[in-house]
Write a structure and sequence with these properties.
four-stranded antiparallel beta sheet
Length: about 110
């Protein structure tokens, strides 16, 4: 009985992570990615019709590192969530400007 319990206990302990939980591949990486995520609001000019927010959203989503973009025609804003290690505010502004919708960081 002891010969069976010792290897089983060792195998169980090897599955425990440093925080006492089971190891799950990719969890550490996911936590690091969340830590690098930043959300900003851009004020966007020239949006006048229902298709404008779609164009702004697609231009922002084309920037590497952008996780989410929510664009409001009514408020003339774009709320962008992105990975700071892959994208910059300047790159986001450039993307909207190149699409015909100049933007700036909203205070």
């Amino acid at each position: 009985m002891i010969k069976f319990v010792a290897p089983a206990a060792l195998a169980f302990l090897l599955l425990l992570g440093p925080a006492g939980g089971f190891l799950r591949p990719g969890v550490g990486q996911a936590v690091a990615e969340i830590a690098r995520e930043k959300t900003i609001t851009l004020s966007v000019k020239n949006m006048v019709c229902e298709l404008c927010p779609y164009t702004v959203k697609k231009s922002l989503e084309a920037v590497p590192g952008v996780a989410k973009a929510v664009v409001s025609l009514k408020d003339k804003t774009a709320v962008v969530t992105y990975d700071e290690s892959k994208a910059t505010v300047a790159a986001l502004i450039k993307a909207t400007t190149n699409a015909g919708f100049p933007s700036a960081l909203k205070n």
